[in-house]
Design goal:
disordered N terminus; 2 domains; 14 strands; alpha/beta; globular; Rossmann fold
């Protein structure tokens, strides 16, 4: 149930002199706008995933990771529907080849986007009609010493900045969503990812594990994680109802700066008009909008390989 400001016909009813208390009862002709939520699902931050092998389609226990991720999605979705049965939910698979979730095991009420050949990657399908975004299974940005399997895009990226603010995948995704006026209402992942996104976005967070080392995790049992997710969704929806979120907006134009592990990547990217070499490992590009910036970033780390 959304806040009164979202109730259809509120201004019209007020103009006709209808008493505000009537809005809490049955008002003929009144209707309530249903919440629309976009869920982006990565894999490293899913509860119960504690090794890099679990995140690879050829790795040990990858099948278990798929089940864990699917269960987390269904838990979040079920909690949303329990509060708003008419909700519209789009789930975008966002890890690796973007075909990790078990489609036939997902709640049948959601729309599922699968496949990695898409210009908007982790946010394909998101636009300004959504009320909020939820990040599941997210990880910290490249170089975070406290993160589990921390990276940004791929291992070739060592740093990403938007208008001087260093961000990881969560930050760049939030900036794109924010350019459409859509806030991130909940982010779940390892403790470093949760801290990073809470600090950057001021969003609700759920911690699913803590890095023991960059490649090993101290896990919270998946059943406990799902309980925490339910609690997080409840907090997020109440806060959304109350107008307690602000979209993350980096402004326009957007100066994109990306640092790579090798000089070769930087040299290849000079073929893109407007791309500037900052130093042997770093490039910079001024995009006219967050949309343009996001598409370029994805191109640079996903489709330009050396």
């Amino acid at each position: 149930m959304l806040g009164l400001s979202r109730l259809v016909g509120l201004r019209g009813l007020t103009a006709l002199g209808v008493c505000l208390p009537l809005l809490f009862g049955v008002v003929p002709g009144s209707a309530q706008e249903q919440v629309r939520i976009f869920i982006s699902v990565d894999l490293e931050g899913i509860g119960g995933v504690g090794t890099s092998a679990m995140t690879s389609s050829t790795g040990k226990d990858y099948a278990t990771a798929r089940e864990l991720a699917t269960n987390e999605v269904n838990t979040v979705v079920d909690e949303i529907f329990s509060r708003d049965p008419g909700a519209e939910i789009v789930v975008n698979d966002s890890h690796g080849d973007h075909q990790n979730l078990l489609h036939t095991r997902l709640d049948p009420r959601v729309v599922y986007i699968q496949g990695s050949i898409k210009p908007l990657g982790m946010l394909q399908g998101l636009d300004g009609t959504f009320d909020g975004v939820i990040f599941l299974g997210y990880h910290a940005k490249a170089g975070d010493p406290d993160g589990f399997l921390a990276h940004t895009g791929t291992g070739s990226v060592k740093g990403l900045w938007l208008n001087g603010v260093e961000v990881g995948e969560g930050g760049m995704n939030a900036a794109f969503a924010g350019s459409h006026g859509v806030p991130v209402i909940l982010a779940a992942g390892d403790s470093a990812a949760a801290a990073e996104l809470e600090d950057l976005l001021g969003t609700e967070t759920v911690t699913t594990k803590t890095a023991e080392t960059p490649a090993a995790a101290r896990l919270i049992h998946p059943e406990r994680v799902r309980t925490l997710l339910r609690e997080g969704v409840r907090r997020a929806l109440v806060r959304l109802d109350e107008g307690g979120y602000q979209p993350f907006v980096v402004g326009a134009p957007v100066v994109v700066r990306m640092r790579f592990a090798t000089t070769i990547h930087v040299d290849v990217l000079q073929s893109i008009p407007g791309m500037r070499k900052v130093d042997g490992f770093t490039v910079e590009y001024t995009a006219t909008s967050a949309d343009e910036a996001y598409r370029l970033i994805r191109l640079m780390y996903r489709f330009v390989t050396v």
